[in-house]
Queue: 2 jobs
Job 1
Amino acid sequence: MVKADAYGHGDITVAAHCRKMGVKHFAVSNINEAERLREHGISGDILILGYTPPGYAKALSENDIIQALPSLDYAEELSLAADAAGVRVRCHIKLDTGMSRIGFDAYDTKKCVSEAAAAAALSSLSVEGIFTHLCVADSADEGDREFTLSQRERILSVRDGLREKGIDLKTVHFLNSAGGTYYSDGESALARFGIMLYGLAPDPATPLYVDIRPVMEVKSAVAMVKVLPAGRYISYGRTVKTESERVIATIPIGYADGYPRLLSNKGYVLINGKKAPIVGRVCMDQTMVDVTGIDGVREGSVATVMGTDGGLSVTADDIAAWAGTISYEIVCGISARVPRVVIENGEIADVWRLI
Ligand SMILES: *Cc1c(COP(=O)(O)O)cnc(C)c1O
């Protein structure tokens, strides 16, 4: 899963590295992401999970991109557009087995099988696979486990129904990170690993049975250190007034970099191996932290916004908990303004400046 710029990590770097390790299948959310991979020479299968306007049939075909089919109506439109352009488009049928997002409704197996068969018979589409998405596979709750198994049953019933009609789709897939981790399942030909590829757990509350480490670190540096007497205010809105003398460092990272404004007066960064709590509101480009009692903080000191420093670490899950969200949103949200520095074997291998 290299959608959303590989969850904020850099799609080209991640996809090229995965190719080297033998990965042959990639998935993205839209045609821009898919074309970008091809423009940078990424080979292998690329599946678009989301909607592509049928007018892009030619671009899909020319770039050898596989398109998800979320409904029979869409499949018919795409086939017509492909026919008009004189091309064939590779496709996977998307089933809705319980998330109610996109896909052929798989609650009625019979109807679903006949619609999927109709899509598979369209002249300008090559339907090669069928997939669905699990929505509670990260939960240990008994009801959620049953629901996940019911989703699995629904896709396998549709697959079997298609087989009975002589349509044998070779690529059946339904496992995301949580599904692949908590439900070992040989019926899924592929596992669409996203968050775990980046070293993060689908749900930090559900223990993992494998050892993974976060790939992303976010580093900044102190821009200025000042000593404030008691009675001074910090940042927009004057939400903080110093009650005693405080040493305050300003870090040039803010919500325009994807550091959530919801962290205002919550959480901390690490400087010289110590916690420096965020004081006042996170601004667009800068954030103030309290470094009182931390030795040796000066302009240029490294501020670890996410990652480890000494024996301490700040994880995407920590930041997500402070901001009331999930790690996915934190890593995806690190904006294009933040250069991506690729580290291989402890050395800088590449730097991507997106802006
Ligand atoms: C994002 C996505 C995934 C990956 O989910 P993770 O929880 O990150 O592993 C898999 N399948 C689909 C359809 C997705 O949209």
Job 2
Amino acid sequence: MSDQYQALLSDSKKRALAYLSHISARRVFPDEAACKGLANFDEALPEKGRDAHETLDLMDRAGSPATVASMGGRYFGFVVGGSLPVTVASNWLSSAWDQVASSNVSSPAVDHMEKVAARWVLDILDLPEDCGVGFVTGATMASFTALAAGRHHLLKNQGWDVEQDGLFGAPKIKVVVSDEVHVTILKAISMLGLGRNNVIRVPTDENGAIDISQLPELGPDTLVCVQAGNVNSGAFDPIGEICDIARASGAWVHVDGAIGLWARVSGEFSALTRGMEKADSWATDSHKWLNTPYDSGVVICRNKVPMYRSMSTTAAYLKDEEEAAKDIVPEFSRRGRGIDIWAALRTLGRNGVRQIIERNCSQARFFASELKGMGFDIHNEVVLNQIVVSFGSEDQTERLIGFMQEEGTCWFGPTIWRGKKAFRISLSSWKTNDEDIRLSIMAFKKARAVITEET
Ligand SMILES: *Cc1c(COP(=O)(O)O)cnc(C)c1O
């Protein structure tokens, strides 16, 4: 038995190391031939089991070339990040453990390690130490979980028990979001039965932050979703000021800090992050800027009780004592995602996390100034790690994106900014170094020449 693990894990390790050692040399997005090779997977379900080594071999032969090289330093698409070496290793070891992270009965080790991870997350993000912390798949589920707690709280204050009686006939919740709200917040709102059509969108300024002068009236029936780190521009809403208004009115403030919550580790960004600790709930990702493997996000609530009440498997609404991990997040059985967070934080330390955040932001500023010098239009104030760029007309911008994606040195995707086609560059990987930026800028020079020539 152990021989089987020995041979297979060695095989997997050998292949993983080969994959990672070539990652910086290969094109970032797979070429057409590699994608065509995926047809090798199109077999009928085998009646008789196949050899495990041969299965790994197929995965590596057909799968590896068609992956996106986000583990290299030149993937700037969406907001992705890579995985720190220690987190790939901790992830493997925890797969070997195969623990259920529901409670201390299902796994004392995971339960304990996740409690440490939770304490460290609150510490490094400088949030109150008695907050509730849950480990989920990403910011989408983190916001879903936090907004479920908010829904519970607001309805309870109006004498309605939503967990028992549902939403039919419930008092209405007023949902206020930024006009630049991330699509996953709207998804969470729809999953919670609050209705996409019911949201009030607050206009934003030119950098994509809420214009506070246009904030509607907030009350004890209001759920306000603000963001720390606009997915395009990196802008922060005036969260502290909104929290002050919300506190006075009894509204619940939720912060989508998928990217920007991590800016709290550096004093460099204190003007942006100040006051955020006054919110009621926060969502963040660890698979983005903390550079842990997918999938991993964190939900944090100031008050643990509405978390338990909205997510408990038992009749937790009857009691206030601390519940198990399964009672504060949607999943009942799940992997111990907090382990990779623990491993990342322990290996990097506060300083190491700060260095990644500050380095990526300084790379973003440099990248933006180089592009600007080359005649590109930079549309945002580069306050964090995100750059919104266009080149000439919308048509030229589109062709430039196409050229760059085809050319392969780096990868980024299109976006719509203030109604116009643009593209977004996100610096969120621990792996990105000066050479990656230099090579990417050279590719941009080539693209600029070709697109200008064509026009
Ligand atoms: C990425 C992102 C999300 C969604 O996070 P997932 O981890 O993909 O669920 C939400 N909000 C913002 C601002 C993001 O950048």
